[in-house]
């Protein structure tokens, strides 16, 4: 078969091809082959799709993802995942199992992905040039989302009885799996064995998260990681450029703390950990080495981040201390100010005639303050302030008291929906003034903060300003 000689094309065609190839993260030869395949009607054009300004710093921009969708209830979320990847300049080609097509149609997936969806191992048009092998090769990363218990089992056993598993067996590319199933299926010893096998084989996992399942009344571990968490994991896996924070290390705290009253009761707060986890993921995606100290949350551990799970403020302080020295500390966790003076050894009983027990409280360690005044103080200490009134005044006072460089203040009054919600409206307080950032998704707040951190260290991230 004749090979493609780009040299022989006229200048205008060469330039157009060069631009297309750069936009789609392909070589010019690859781009030419994709276009010829499309013209011959045997392969879709897999464009990277429109790139938004906010996505300009996405580390996997210009890369190609082969997304395998299997037959779980979370399959509808794969549409959002495709959209999020494409708007970050990632080319997405989709493969669906037979069961996945019972949940979302190839038509919908193809419309969002901007190309043909592959469903059949024995497709004559695609297989005349061994289509499943080609699909396995023509991607930088294979993502399985959602990954059913069934598909995980077939992967673990090396089956290749449909297009999805044939690709997964044939690919030499990294594989990222986002499990999604009922908690009982996730807990089952067979699934535990299969997941352990995949991990031994070098497959990377994102999630599952803990929380409400689609089935009413069901809760536990098994929810698919949110599309933006999968996007972050893809970025962490595919980020080829060194990243603006390469060579720097960070510790991030996230979530609430639980302070025990007795063996079954505890003092807690409404923090979800969404903002802290998003910051840890964004720091890692920017190339920093990150330790995340997470209080009890239902979120998946961010990919590419060393996560330490703790419950109480004292455990959180010990874990932060163990992570030092680092260059950057971002203290996002809503650490309980107080704990009970003494945790009851047994469940406190209601006794007839006696009134309610009085809880004597004592102060918890002030983790931000101890980091801000530490002998091994990080070069940049950032604290979060959850306030319900006089935001800027309180944040400025906190900046001084805690020895922090910056305070990110957010209004957590119940009517804002910020605590526990997905969006945030923050004010960045530094020694020189207060910046009011517009309301954004917590992942966008994280990215804007990472751009500020990068410029603090003299490493700019273009076009990732708040509101960009
Ligand atoms: C309504 C419904 C929801 C389902 N949701 C899930 C799920 O979330 N996770 C899962 O592992 N299996 C789920 N299943 C079972 C899978 O669809 C089934 O195991 C199927 O064989 C998976 O095929 P696949 O792995 O080839 O996509 C569900 C089945 C039904 C009928």
CATH topology of the largest domain: Rossmann fold
User: What's the end-to-end separation, in Å?
Assistant: 48 Å
Tell me roughly what share of residues is in helical segments: 25-40%
Per DSSP E runs of 2 or more residues, the count of β-strands stands at: 22
What portion of the residues fall into strands of 2 or more residues?
15-25%
Mass-distribution shape: globular
Present as ligands are: flavin mononucleotide
Rounded mean pLDDT is 85
CATH class of the largest domain: Alpha Beta
Describe the protein in words:
The protein is globular and about 80 Å long. The protein folds into 2 domains: 43-237, Flavin prenyltransferase-like (Rossmann fold), CATH 3.40.50.1950; 242-343 and 357-456, Rossmann fold (3-Layer(aba) Sandwich), CATH 3.40.50.10300. Residues 48-54 and 462-468 have low confidence and may be disordered. Helix content is 34%, strand content 20%. It is α/β, with parallel strands linked by helices and 468 residues long. The strands form 6 sheets. An 8-stranded mixed sheet has the order 13-12-9-14-17-18-20-21, sandwiched between helices. Strands 3-2-1-4-5-6 form a 6-stranded parallel sheet, sandwiched between helices. The protein has a two-stranded antiparallel sheet with strand order 7-8. The protein has helices spanning 11-24, 28-39, 77-87, 106-113, 124-127, 131-137, 149-156, 163-170, 183-187, 189-200, 227-238, 274-285, 313-323, 367-372, 391-402, 442-456; strands at 64-69, 91-96, 117-118, 141-147, 175-179, 204-205, 209-212, 219-223, 249-254, 259-260, 266-267, 289-294, 306-309, 328-331, 338-340, 361-363, 380-387, 406-411, 423-424, 426-430, 433-436, 440-441. Flavin mononucleotide binds next to helix 7. Flavin mononucleotide is lined by residues 70-74, 97, 99-100, 148-151, 180-181, 185.
């Amino acid at each position: 078969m004749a090979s493609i000689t780009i040299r022989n094309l006229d200048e205008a065609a060469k330039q157009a091809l060069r631009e297309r190839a750069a936009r789609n993260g392909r070589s010019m030869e690859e781009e030419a082959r994709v276009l010829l395949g499309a013209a011959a009607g045997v392969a879709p054009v897999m464009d990277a799709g429109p790139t938004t300004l906010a996505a300009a710093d996405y580390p996997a921009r210009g890369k190609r993802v082969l997304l395998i969708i299997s037959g779980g209830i979370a399959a509808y979320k794969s549409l959002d995942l495709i959209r999020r990847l494409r708007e970050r300049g990632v080319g997405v080609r989709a493969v669906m199992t037979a069961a996945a097509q019972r949940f979302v149609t190839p038509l919908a997936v193809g419309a969002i992905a901007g190309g043909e969806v592959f469903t059949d191992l024995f497709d004559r048009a695609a297989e005349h040039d061994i289509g499943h092998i080609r699909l396995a090769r023509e991607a930088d990363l294979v993502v399985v989302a959602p990954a059913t218990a069934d598909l995980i089992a077939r992967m673990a056993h090396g089956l290749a009885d449909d297009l999805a598993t044939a690709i997964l067996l044939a690919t030499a590319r990294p594989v990222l799996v986002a499990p999604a199933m009922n908690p009982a299926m996730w807990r089952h010893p067979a699934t535990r064995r299969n997941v352990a096998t995949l991990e031994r084989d070098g497959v990377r996992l994102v999630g599952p998260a803990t929380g409400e399942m689609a089935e009413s009344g069901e809760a536990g571990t098994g929810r698919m990681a949110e599309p933006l968490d999968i996007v972050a994991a893809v970025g962490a896996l595919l980020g080829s450029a060194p990243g603006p924070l390469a060579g720097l290390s960070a510790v991030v705290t996230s979530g609430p703390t639980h302070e025990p009253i007795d063996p079954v009761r505890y003092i807690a707060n409404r923090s979800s950990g969404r903002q802290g986890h998003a910051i840890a993921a964004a720091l890692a995606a920017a190339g920093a080495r990150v330790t995340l100290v997470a209080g009890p949350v239902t979120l998946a551990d961010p990919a590419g981040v060393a996560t330490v799970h703790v419950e109480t403020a004292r455990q959180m302080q010990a874990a932060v201390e163990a992570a030092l020295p680092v260059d950057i500390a971002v203290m996002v966790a809503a650490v309980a100010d107080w704990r009970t003076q003494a945790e009851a050894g047994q469940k406190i009983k209601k006794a007839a005639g006696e009134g309610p027990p009085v809880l004597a409280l004592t102060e918890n360690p002030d983790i931000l303050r101890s980091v801000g005044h530490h002998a091994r103080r990080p070069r940049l200490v950032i604290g979060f302030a959850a306030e319900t009134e006089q935001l800027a005044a309180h944040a400025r006072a906190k900046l001084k008291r805690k020895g922090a460089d910056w305070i990110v203040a957010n209004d957590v009054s119940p009517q804002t929906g910020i605590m526990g919600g997905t969006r945030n409206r923050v004010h960045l307080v530094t020694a020189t003034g207060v910046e009011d950032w517009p309301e954004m998704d917590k992942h966008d707040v994280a990215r804007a903060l990472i751009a500020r951190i990068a410029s603090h260290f003299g490493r700019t991230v273009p076009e990732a300003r708040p509101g960009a």
